Amino acid sequence: MTAGVRHLLGLALAIVSFVGTIVICALPQWRIEKIFWESSNVAPQVFIEGLWKVCGPYSAHTECKEYEEPFVSISQDLEVARALIVIAIIVGVIGILLGAAGSKFINFVPDERKRSKIAMASGVVCIIAGIFVLIPISWTTITTTTIQNNFNNFLPHGTLELGASLYIGWITTLIIMLSICSCIQNIFLQYLFNGFCVKYDCIVTVKLSH
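Now predict its structure.
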């Protein structure tokens, strides 16, 4: 696989990760709480928490309310996640723009050495974006699991589950982690066999041209 193709593949993975981050930010399914009644004829109450609103049986039908409304509060882990995910989206945009600027196909920067440095910067920025996604996903997963383990002590007929946003977030983070592994591997091989290479191509999935 040529450096140019690897570069485009890295940029494509960056865009996929960026879309995944937007999805988990907008999708109100970070945590699902189900409350079952002793009577089997009564449907369970389901509350679905997201970063911006919580959905539940507040009236005759399921209704979503924003956390700013009265009697609707957001947990600490989701409040921190909201800030970090927004930062991750902003950082992701910067990483993609740098990746496009460092692309050999777009040729936005004529000087190849500067273009390679921009591509490397793109990879670093996208790794930072991945960290901002990993922290809230991990924290909410651990918090939800911990609460669930002690849930029956307070509410015997209730369950707490991980929402779809967390699974999407783990997949998004995995893509970025694979990019980091690729970067480390290429840098290691570059130093091992060729020493420091001035001419490199490292973007998102981070690849160095030999």
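Strands lie at 31-35, 45-49, 53-56, 63-66, 158-162.
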